[in-house]
Fold this sequence. Notes:
Helices cover 38% and strands 16% of the residues. By secondary structure, it is an alpha+beta fold.
Amino acid sequence: SGTKRAPTPVEFDVNNPIHFSFIVAAANLRAVNFGLTGSTDEAKIRSILDDFMVPEFEPNSNVVIPANEAEAKKQKENAGEEEEDKVSRLLSELPAPSSLAGYRLIPIEFEKDDDTNFHIDFITNCSNLRATNYEIAIADRHKTKGIAGKIIPAMVTTTAMVTGLVCLELLKVIQKKKIEAYKNSFCNLALPLFTFSEPFPPEKVKVRDGWEWSLWDRFDFQGPKTLGEIIDEFEEKYKLEVSMMSGDSTLLYGFYMPPAKIAERRAMELSELYTSLTQKPLTSGTLTLVCCCSRMEDDEDVEVPSALYRFK
Length: 312
């Protein structure tokens, strides 16, 4: 397995990107454990580290490193009582449970796909510091993520084949091919089995002569707009009268509401109206609207697609 290498201590250097990134990642993970707000302010962190003195590493003179397997076995047998003493001492130093009432630590579950949670950053920098100790090659973040997440490159797998088939269908979308050109694919490499079929067109809903819609259609409204402006646009542009409107399951407007409430809501910008009713902020920048409408020419109720309101 090659010769063993003695580790060399690493002297902390705030200007070393591995050292600095390790501190940032470790501190932010520690903050999550204690329910605190972390920080990535480089200037602030550097100002703290500039005033911090790292104690110089001094090897323990009482530690004896075994030179062979026999010495290691003997050392392990002799260390039994010492280890028990250490455990007993540590247990005695633990505070009484009653003194920790209300104290809570938050566990962290490993998540490799969130690039903002510092999980992969910590693993990368921690392993690279260890590699520096033993003078072996360090690994970049991408390679570390692959190892930590047990990611296997999908070169000759069903995933690769499906990706290729999806790309072929996307080319047909770009070329605006007729539906007869598209294919549904069912594949099983283990059998092997490859079957293809033509998809059915989406079901169409008729609003009036010359206007049909499917699940692929929707109304788009670019804000800021008030509730009244959107209702007026339905009437003027689409000749539809809105009787009810909800946003993400919250009723925003109903024809049966008192006139004063209708007037108040019509004057409000839509995202502000939603926030005032739900007491929850909208962070996505969009709001999905579902409307009940009737044709203005004959007052007949009709199904209409959902609407997407963009307020950012």
